[in-house]
Amino acid sequence: MADQDQRQPGPPPLRLPELLEGGWRLLDEVEAGSAHEPSSGAVPVQRQVQQGLRLLERAARAVAELQLFSHNEELEEIASADLKFMLVPALLAALILKQVSPDKRLEHVQRARASFMDFLKVCKDYGIGHFELPQESDHLDEDQSAGSSQRVGPTSDQAALIAMATNRQAKIERYKQKKEVENRLASLKTSVDGGHADEEQIREYYLLQIKKWISTSLEEIESIDQEIAILSRREALKQVQRPSTRARPPMKPFILTRDAAQAKVFGTGYPSLATMTVDDWYEQRQKQGVLPDQGIPQRPAGTEEEEEKKEEEEESETAVWRAREWDEWKDTHPRGYGNRKNMG
Asked: How confident is the model over 123-149, as a mean pLDDT?
């Protein structure tokens, strides 16, 4: 019975090399499977992505705890077998970008950028490759706003053209170096994977892998910065276009009555309902500002009296004018004028 109660030990925890190899293998499988799957958001692909993320996150914590890399070391002081662990942040960032979640896309690209930057900083500290570190994401918005506020003129246009040409040349050089590195890696991969490579070949193989991922990281950060700018503008546009509707208080049921006496009668018959007269209802709705004619400008109170006074004055002037015409007509026409019956 005692033997049956004993629990069987589980599998031993994975060591750091196994964590790195497992996460790296899943990344290669995801990249190869994305070409065959109709969408990178397919369930099998995303399951591999999450599994690889868990392995590489554990590997990143182990590298930090062991303190394998230091700012005070030289590249020659790192053991050849430990060089591959320098790739953990880059591989982790590549898997983070494979996640498909529109609601968390901005969070994912920012996290991937930070991981790529950690990898590039370590490479810069050890002098691996010749490259310039990209700007931190905190300073991107400041530089963009400062550049947009500068005066546009011939000098700024010329500087922009020079920067574009320099950037294009740097991309061409990176592409050539990446192709050379990939060709050399292909020739060393068989020996390293088969266990027939010596220490010098192993060191060269992982240094070439690091240089390859330096080029990949620089390209990915450039794309990430453009995507972050688009996603940020989209979020700001959503905030602007979101309607600000003011909720009106719900109306209580009531009965309209002609006068206060009728309100009392209905009030006794329907004690659960509120009652009011038409005038009370009109005054209440007028205070709430919901009457349909409240947006129409009303005539001033004294306008009607002024118009009535003006009409009375016009009528009196017309009467005076008609009386004067009648007096003039009587002066020129004596009594009996035009009466042909009295003619002799």
From this structure: 73
